[in-house]
Amino acid sequence: MSSQPISLLSQYWRKYQQEGRFLLVGASVFVADAVLFYLLFETFGLPLIWARVGAFSVAVVLSWFANRCWTFSDRQQETKSRQLMMSLLVSSMAAVANLSAFYLISLWLGQSLLDAAFAFSVGVLTGLVLNWFGANFWTFRALEID
User: Fold this and answer.
1) What pLDDT, in 10s, does the model give residues 51-107?
2) Cα–Cα separations (whole angstroms), residue 13 to 1, 8, 84, 93
3) What single DSSP character describes residue 79?
4) What count of other Cβ atoms lies within 10 Å of the Cβ of residue 44?
5) Is the pLDDT of residue 1 over 60?
């Protein structure tokens, strides 16, 4: 077995490590978000939009924590409280896009579990793009040390 593919993968990871970490955090938070959404909607019987808002709120805090401690840990950062507020602002803007896409697609398709899963995924992907730019260029930007 050649080590060439492993070497290329290693080089790619080093070059795009931060992006990879951001996506891994996002994927993990996506799973937690989806499981909690399913539980709130199917098991506890919350209305569709309230189940989504509840799960999303938990996901925001998990994402901030993981990105602060792992994805952007090599950067000199804002204080935790200020950064959490910045993260909440970015996440809130992404939430508007996320939930709007979710809601509009839910209206268009319906409210079956399969329709909700599709709407959920489109909403999350919309929020992902906004969160990356907000996290990378504002919330977790490297502070200049005087």
Assistant:
1) 988 998 898 889 889 999 999 988 877 888 888 889 889 988 988 998 899 999 999
2) 20, 9, 28, 30
3) -
4) 10
5) no
**Residue type for 55, please?**
A
CB 71 within 8 A of CB 18: yes
Closest C-alpha among 145, 142, 126 to residue 71:
142
With CA atoms as reference, report the closest residue to 89 among 126, 29, 130. Answer: 130
Query: SS3 of 75, please?
Result: coil
Q: Using a cut of 0.85, tell me whether the model's pTM lies above it.
A: no
Residue with tokens 């896409």: 101
Torsion of CA 73, 65, 30, 9, to 10 degrees: 10
